[in-house]
Amino acid sequence: MKNFGVPSAWFSLAIVSCLLVLSGCLSPITLTRAVIAYDEAITESQSKQLLVNIARAQHHQPIHFTGVSNVAATFDFRFTAGATPALTGDASRTILPVIGGSVAENPTISIAP
């Protein structure tokens, strides 16, 4: 009797291994995008401050610059894998894989007036 609904242990191990390998590939890509995004945001902020200070100087008001001294970001990659019985059909024989994941970024930005 063949059981087509139950994945083998090797198949499950292959899926988990692929997920672990892919999580290592996500980190450099995410880091590169984050560095570029933070750099663009800081550059835009500095440009706007310069324009505001030019207007302040024209009206004989004191100029003021605020700079970003440090950006520290942590990344959290989570992958989950499991199996659950099917909700339809012969539930005692059919097992469905359950795969999930999430990515979170937690930046800490230091601003120096």
Would you give an account of this structure?
- There is one protein chain.
- The chain has one helix at residues 9-58; strands spanning 67-85, 95-112.
- The chain is rod-shaped and about 80 Å long.
- The longest helix has 50 residues, at 9-58.
- It has one domain.
- The protein has 113 residues and is an alpha+beta fold.
- The N and C termini lie far apart (74 Å).
- The model is unreliable at 1-6 (pLDDT under 50).
- It has a two-stranded antiparallel sheet.
- It contains 1 helix and 2 strands.
In short:
The chain is of the alpha+beta class and 113 residues long. The chain has one helix spanning 9-58; strands spanning 67-85, 95-112.
Helix content: 40-55%
> Sheet with the most strands?
2 strands, antiparallel
Question: What is the total tally of β strands?
Answer: 2
Number of helices: 1
Q: What is the rounded Rg?
A: 26 Å
- Please provide the ordered H/E string of secondary-structure elements: HEE
Keywords:
single chain, 113 residues, two-stranded antiparallel ribbon
Q: How do the helices and strands line up, and which of them pair or pack?
A:
Elements: H1 9-58, E1 67-85, E2 95-112
Antiparallel strand pairs: 1-2
